[in-house]
Amino acid sequence: SVLSSAVLRCIAAVDFTEMSSDEVHHLIKMIQIAASRLPETTVLVEKLVDQMVKFGSDPAGSGASSSLRLEHGNEVVMTISEALLLNLTVSVTGAKLAAKAVLTNKCVAFLLAAGKVPELRKPIMLSAEYRSKLEQILKAEDESRPGEIDVPLELTWGARFIEALMPFFSSHARFRVRGKVAFRIVKRVADILAGRSYAADCEGPTNGFDSDSPNRGLALRLSKEEREMWDDDELKSSLGYLDDNEKEERADQQVMFAQANGVTRIFQFLTSAFHGKDPTEKLREVNSLQEAEQFLEASKPDFQQEQQNNLEASRDGGVANSHTSGIKPFLEVDNLVFSGHSHEGVDLVDPPYSFPSEFGGELSILFSARWDALQNWSTVLDFGSGAPQNNILIANVGRTGNLIFQVYIGSKRLSKKVIVPDCICIGETNTYLCTVSKSGLMQVLCGGHVLGEKYDCWLPSTCVREHLYIGKSNFPAVDPFRGEISFLKVWVGAALQWQDILGDLPEQDTESHDASTTSIIKTLLRPQTDEERPAREPLLLKTQAATHTRCMVEVFEEFFEDAMLEKVNIAFTVAAALRCLFVLLRMPAHGGVRADIVEALKEERFVCEVVTLTRACGALNCNVAAKFLRVMGLALELAPTQTEEDVRRFIVYDVLRAYYVELAKMAQTADASPDPLVSRRGRILAAEITRLVGVICRTLPFCIVSEDRFLQAEFTERCMERLVPHAVVEVTSMMILTQPGEGSGLVYEEISAVARSLLTGLMDHCPELKYGILEVFGTAVANGRASAFTMTSLLEQSRQLTEGGEFERFLCTGGSNGLSAERKSVIAPTLEQPSGIERVLGCAQGLVFLAGKRVPVENRRHMTPFFSCIVTTKAFYILDLTASGHPENPRVVQQKDFLDMTRLIKGSTGQDLHIGWACRDRWTPNPVEEFMTIIFRRDDAASDILGKLQRLSIPPQGSMGQMVPVQKDKIMDEALAEFDKASEVGPEFMAYVDSKFDELRIFMFTSSELFVLDTDFSNWIPPFENDGVLELQDTNADPATITAGREAAVEVHQAEGAEDAEAAGPSASRITKQKAAMRVRTGMIHEGVTPGKVLTCPEGRGIPVATLNDMSFHAEQGRIHMNLIFTEGGYNNISVFLLSEQMKEEVRRRIASKEEDWENYDEPYVPRNDDDAK
Asked: pLDDT by residue (tens digit) across 36-63?
């Protein structure tokens, strides 16, 4: 040790700029020799490695540093890697443990520094030899005893490539799934795919690594990033810091990840920790797939046609479908006693009964029975032709007191059943009602109470059943019934309720129903006080994790589940793996990468396995469930140009349904938790459930099973009823009825718009669900949690969706062919029109301006004097809702090809959207830009239509980078600012309103004044700057031609404006110059009109809100007529038409917030006539 210290002092005293190549070589040899004698030489090796760190970090790169880089790079990298491996494998205690940690840190510091030196990193750190050593080192760390320091070699330059990290997920690597090394590697993969630069990886504040002190707990510090929900804006902004080389490398790594089947490999690695540990989860996966498969087959048109025939045949048989007492039973028997012998069973097909054996459809079975013994599957009745063959069966389950009601379809063992536990008591007589309704609801009732029920069932087939057994079964291994069946009645074609059969019950069963119906109804309708309302029982769902049974509404985010063994909480690793998917789906560097990931995420068994994995994590931990739902929503969203989806995708939807229904109940419980963290996580989970279900419901109509639109609509309705149970409706409604709490990261306007879109879509496609939705909101209104406006807004949006459905029916019945023949692209006239069925993607009502001039409707006095703006899979349409013949023969005012879209400009109020279209002009051979301005009735419609149009603007075989740019309406923003100079944040509220003479105005609240501004879109011009220049990423000729055409249209627009800008002179203001420079050739700016006078105030100034004396609203011609009367300042009144009920509610709320006198103002909404009331 004395000699070693002397040598090191000599080395430290030498100016290493003068060291020769041989001397550097001898130092490396000293490291090799000393490393072979660890741990005795730990301090010596640490000092030598520290010297190498100085050589490698020398910015001048001269002397020893130059020799190290140019002549001994491979030797030094492999020598220090070997020293690090040897140091990890030695076992020490006490003071030597600290020295071991310091040496480990110095070795890692050198390898990180080497990554910044081009001569050291290529090709040395890309070699198979180095990668093999990398795997050995991380494997040694993974197998080290708890408490050892972290060795983050995954942060080195050689591990920044996907091909270097993928082998860690192979079976031969055998890393601990719950180990800290596995977590760090998965996180590193996510960082690489997100484009995190190597410079950032080497910085201490970013990755938590400190070269000057032992890095115990590094993985714990890194884990903080995986706790919270992802932020789209943060991801986008981080990409903005990458240079061109880093962007190119990120694209290469994403492609490599997809080609290496990275998604499957990572999740197979993670799920391997749970295989074989919980067989019930595996059984659940199999059952969920089988159940989805059965429902899909039973919901297809041929099967549903059979069900319709069942119903018609039943009704033709003379059975009335009326839920009133006195319906004649299909069959009826009584006083049957059985001693349990096989020969005692009764077949009602045989004499003396001779009941007809052909029936099906809706069914009600009422019977009173006493079991004297619980024999094996002893059967009350079994109507069928075999084992199985269209059986309708009621029995006890096994030898238990559980009652089963089961319906088989055909002979393929497809069945639906309701099992009621412990409802049979030996020696007791009870009366049961078993029903199957047309809506697919199976129920078992007793004494007026529902004992069990199951949704999404099918009706019994209409067919001949060879045996109508009572007291015995068609199945051979079943024991006969032992007991008494006092009476049995069967109704076909009707699903009765308990009150319907009171007259058919024995006297003892009706005693409990003697109370007056009126008093019962009064009791039910009497408002309950808070004390009378039953308390909601807490949700007690538990996770399925191997070692923990924590309540799922708790958040457990300790990094180590077992700190003594350093067993990592699997939620962190799964969250990092899900981030890999999110990055590839949300910000793919290449369109093909996203397609590969989507394909993997649509595989049925893979989805089942990931659902099982997220269940094991605990739904709220690290927001794992919410992150998984977000990823699936992104993967399942249909491409705008895609007109059909594989019908088997329903199986994936159904697997997800079982999970998100479970999560919906949990989200409601968590949202109501007093713990702020739990409540915030519950809210986030509810929002992601809403997003995913919205995607599924938008995509489901594209799962085509029949060209017949009626059969297709029936299939869609049936599937939606299954996929959106009442629990999901409640969670979705929560997104509208309550504001998100602080820290949730949710924007109320955004998520409530998603929720409204989902609910209105359900009301449009599923009449059966409409009652449940309105019930939720009606209850909220009655309890004071919501205003009546919320319901009217939903119904208004639902009506607009109905318009889209009506137009789609017109397109599917031949209208699409005629419109397509009339439509020809200006930019690409020779390009063939897209084929396939034309589907409606979005629909909203509004006012339309073309080239600054308002387009008039055909009938101004119509109940809906608006246009319908419809986005389909092939084109953009403007329909006149007032035209005669609508909707059977709609009048198409405008139809535009998406290829002709040049840019989108987002308006200032949330209602307005400006769309640039390329059009022909007779004065120039090049296409010029013409703008269409749409003022939507709904605030959320503009952003919805904008998003769809931008995605649809991608040319055929083009990339996402070729979407048209979206710009901000700077002209309108600056014009509005002129009227609110006192405010730094702009107006508090703005909305477009109409006058009696169809003059569009802006109704605006500032901090203290109210403005009504006249608008003139003939003076409106688009922004001068062409934000988002399109870059061609693919080599296909068609996209290049289309992109060039779009750019040419904008260039002509700007070039001509530039000439006017030159003529305008330097005296014009900046805004005037910009407006003059951007004058559109097609006449948006006319001669003699001063550009920029988009807004004018007739009174010259605002009206103080404090002078408001009275306000009133009434319906008139599909709009809301608002009258505001003022007392001071010479203003008489303001009389305008609001475009929607939503606007009226917002105006009233704003006025109430300004003046206390108006806080309780609640003028009734009085329609003037029957049409207004409707």
From this structure: 888 888 888 888 888 888 887 777 666 7
